[in-house]
From TrEMBL:
<feature type="domain" description="ATP-grasp">
    <location>
        <begin position="479"/>
        <end position="672"/>
    </location>
</feature>
<protein>
    <submittedName>
        <fullName>Acyl-CoA synthetase (NDP forming)</fullName>
    </submittedName>
</protein>
<dbReference type="Pfam" id="PF13380">
    <property type="entry name" value="CoA_binding_2"/>
</dbReference>
<dbReference type="GO" id="GO:0043758">
    <property type="term" value="F:acetate-CoA ligase (ADP-forming) activity"/>
</dbReference>
<dbReference type="InterPro" id="IPR003781">
    <property type="entry name" value="CoA-bd"/>
</dbReference>
<dbReference type="GO" id="GO:0005524">
    <property type="term" value="F:ATP binding"/>
</dbReference>
<dbReference type="InterPro" id="IPR043938">
    <property type="entry name" value="Ligase_CoA_dom"/>
</dbReference>
<keyword id="KW-0067">ATP-binding</keyword>
<dbReference type="InterPro" id="IPR013815">
    <property type="entry name" value="ATP_grasp_subdomain_1"/>
</dbReference>
<dbReference type="InterPro" id="IPR016102">
    <property type="entry name" value="Succinyl-CoA_synth-like"/>
</dbReference>
<dbReference type="InterPro" id="IPR036291">
    <property type="entry name" value="NAD(P)-bd_dom_sf"/>
</dbReference>
<dbReference type="Pfam" id="PF13607">
    <property type="entry name" value="Succ_CoA_lig"/>
</dbReference>
<dbReference type="Pfam" id="PF13549">
    <property type="entry name" value="ATP-grasp_5"/>
</dbReference>
<keyword id="KW-0547">Nucleotide-binding</keyword>
<dbReference type="Pfam" id="PF19045">
    <property type="entry name" value="Ligase_CoA_2"/>
</dbReference>
<dbReference type="InterPro" id="IPR032875">
    <property type="entry name" value="Succ_CoA_lig_flav_dom"/>
</dbReference>
<dbReference type="InterPro" id="IPR011761">
    <property type="entry name" value="ATP-grasp"/>
</dbReference>
Amino acid sequence: MRSLDTLFTPRTVAILGASNDEAKYGNWISVQALRMSRPVYLINRRGEKVLGEPTYRRMADVPEPVDLVVITVPAGGFEEAVDDALAAGATAIVGITSGFAELGDEGRAAQVAVAAKIRAAGAVLLGPNCLGVLDTTSDLYLVSNPLPRGPIGLVSQSGNMALELSKFLADRGLGFSRFASLGNQADLGAADLIRAYAHHPGTEVIAAYCEDFQDGRAFVAACGEAVAAGKPVVLLTVGRSTASTRAARSHTGSLTSDSAVIDAACRAAGVDRVRSPREMADLVTALHRHGSAPARRVAVIADGGGHASTAADIADANGLAVQEFRPELQAALKADLPPSAGVANPVDLAGAGEQDIASFARTIDRVLTDPDIDSVLVTGYFGGYGDYGPDLAAREIATATAMAEHVHRHGKPLVVHTMCSDSLAADELRRHGIGVFRTVDDAARTLGMLADHAEHRPVTKTLPEAAQPVTESGYWHARELLKAGGLTFPDARLATDVVQAAEEIGYPVVLKAMGLLHKSDAGGVAIGLSDRDELCRAHQDMVKRLNVSEYCVERMAGGGVELIVGVRRDAGFGPVLMVGLGGVFTEILKDVTFALAPVTPQEAETMLRSLQAAPLLHGARGREPVDLAAAAEAVAAISEVGAAHPEIAELEVNPLLATPSGCLGLDARIVLVER
């Protein structure tokens, strides 16, 4: 772990490229820097005053060593500026300057060279092509725009995303403890910053916007470290990956999307993935307020039947469980509410708001007391009753206060959707840390994400030592490699004399033509050959059509459930395991799930149970259940082999036959990394 102390808590700072031009970063950052209490030196090559402050022409003229230098000069002068900063003793450099890797190979080469020079000097580089750095806990303001203070640590590859998130957070009464703009990540990457945030006392929740994860396994490890330290990580990403530029040559490659890989990485690290800056702000705020509190079993409370039913449906669609209340709770609610009220869940207060606004608080208190309820979703008109007169307005605000008190006493999450979200009562809820939403969709989605977070369990992923590389990719070589790794295959022979091989094995047999990437599609597989005549006819047909001389003769397996198991090596995240329903319809049905490889048998069994086809494994329609433990062991073995061979781009077993008595690999494929 590299020290980032001088990046976030420097004793002295210099702005190289300070300017009076209000259209330049050198001006914007100088304005913010001059807010700080630490020494700030403005470097301007003309030596003119900037923002009324004296400047220096060169770093060498500064009267003391400088810990952190922000460089805003054009790309042509960037390397010289870096040399000046290093000579002045800088151990942290923030490169605002653009014009490097984002422009092509020439710019990338210049970027690599200057980053290497900085690392060789024992310093760190943030950027280039970034927005700056901020640490409100150490009074560090080196970004182009003022940002709100708070407990959220942000790592962002986009400056504009950071600015938009800051506005959403400010609306929710939150802001940043730290912000680092990644830019091109020539030196420091997302993993470095997240790991630093994990050990930062002022950061409670970490938000990250990433487009390029670079070393994905390092990112997963850093996020896992943060989550283990009690600091949730929320990720927004566009799902890009260099793997998308490579044509897939197997089912595994064609079915594994960049987004699926990122989801697998998030599950491994315990990271919560969101789809937009607003969604990120909602979840970050909920995590700050409620941490890892359970939220799955929700009570829906409304002041009208329409809102009650709609909210219940939307809650269900977001993975929340709107379960019927126990009879005791229903009886307690019925005794307090109007006769027409619905009390089973969802709760319809049936006009109680106008007659007795305090019924909202009493109902919330009762349902939060119940051990079968994890959270509450209030929906409807609350917040608007104050429009009916000053007396009701005062009582509505008092009720909002009471609602918040009940929530804090019980320690269970409450979200409120109100069509009057700009009311004084809504403001009172926000003031007490209650989430208030303009739409019930946002309220239910946030509660659903909170429920998912509470059930996340990070899984440590360690890659095995690299095994002796394989150089051949044919079926027989794949078969033997997997057998050595613990996977069972039917008895087989690699032969030119297929009849002799079949007689050694015993009929019925399967005949497979060697040297074909997709044997079944090419008509290179014949199954259920029960005698010599059938075998000879199938063999002669393949020889004529395919011009193949070498064949695998394999004992015919019995019935079972066909699975597909594959490992694809992602450029950023390394080996990724895919498990799904196999056979010839794999790419049509696309019933698959993913995880970073390798996995344990326990993790493999969880993946198998998550498939839509899982009922087939358990014995659907009177069939005998398969040996799920054996199938999980087989999946784990395949994942270990794939993870131990970095020279293999794609490793696939399809089908993997799961039966009541065990598990057999019936076909396998290797795709080697292109050199």
